[in-house]
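Before surveying the methods themselves, let us examine one representative protein, pairing a chain with its fold in token form.
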Amino acid sequence: MNKEDHATRIGHVNLKVSNLESAIAFYTDVMGLTLMQRFGTGGAFLGFGGYHHHIGLNTLSSAGGAPPPESCTGLHHVAFLYPDRDALIAAVQRVMVHLKDVGSDEVPQVSDHGVSEAVYFHDPDNILIEMYCDRPTEAWPYDTAGNLAMFNEPVELETFLNS
């Protein structure tokens, strides 16, 4: 396969969760996916725009389980790409309402990556969620040798929401 083959992409992610009902509620009510199919009490597929599934949820070996320790290998985060900054801000505002409703003291973290703006927070199973929107490719940073020069600069949440 050619490295420039843009037809190949990540299709979906399947997450082991501790509570299927809680996970379905989070990913539908907060993240905006649609429940496409249920597999009894052990799993579900959720998607955007009628697609069969972007997220799989399962409790086959994880029902009632605890999140892995930070020092373990595995999934770092799941990223949701929004079409533009306005859509991202609206989604972040939904997340903030959710965090308040569940009594969480987590404050979403915002980062400027040069190529994108990203907001990070955790789902009910402590899986790190990234919500982001890309900047136009002509605005991406490059070094003097012409290499992409992404970075990770923190941004205050209020600054991000009000800019």
